[in-house]
Amino acid sequence: MTYFLLPDLNYENERIELENVMKSYTEWSYYGTGRFKIHIGFPKRETIIPIAIKFKNPKTLFKKIEFNMVKANGIVAPHADHDRFVTMNLPICGNFKNSTVDFYENTTNSPPTHTSSLNLPDGTSVEVTTARSCASAELVELVSYEVPICFDTQVIHGVTNSTADDRYILSLSFKEEFTYQRLKDMYEYGDLLV
Hints:
Elements: E1 3-5, H1 12-24, E2 29-33, E3 36-41, H2 45-52, H3 58-61, E4 62-70, E5 74-81, E6 86-93, E7 100-105, E8 113-114, E9 117-119, E10 125-127, E11 131-133, E12 138-143, E13 149-152, E14 157-161, E15 167-174, H4 180-188
Antiparallel strand pairs: 1-13, 2-3, 3-4, 4-15, 5-11, 5-14, 6-13, 6-15, 7-12, 7-14, 8-11, 9-10
């Protein structure tokens, strides 16, 4: 298993404000094309502080915190991240009961390819090395979640939003020294959340 759920991370009071901010956000960048896109937003510091302080020592934990959005009927193709190792996704709004984060296995032993362009709100594109495409990976597990999920982004994963609703999450990426197992242990022993 490469993920765990955090049902006791309570952010219901912050969720409404985050939903309002995300739905009015206009500076989305994105990876992918057509319905195979993930949209990335960069929240202001004051927007994410109420979430960050729910963690013990947040300044030492997080590498970055971003908005993510997958449009209705959108798909994020199988990939492994290059610049982050473990993330925690907090569902903000959308039909999470009927959409999934998908986990895959590389059955061909061929290395993932580096093909990423970040498309900016002004219409320009920047080549970045952030994800490794894994088109030949085999689907292993579909996970729908309505509470925060923490998972290893080095494991091949994607998203399927086969619903009529856009899917918004707050994505908290941990610094490299916080491995999946270390974070899971911290959570289980009460050392992660306040």
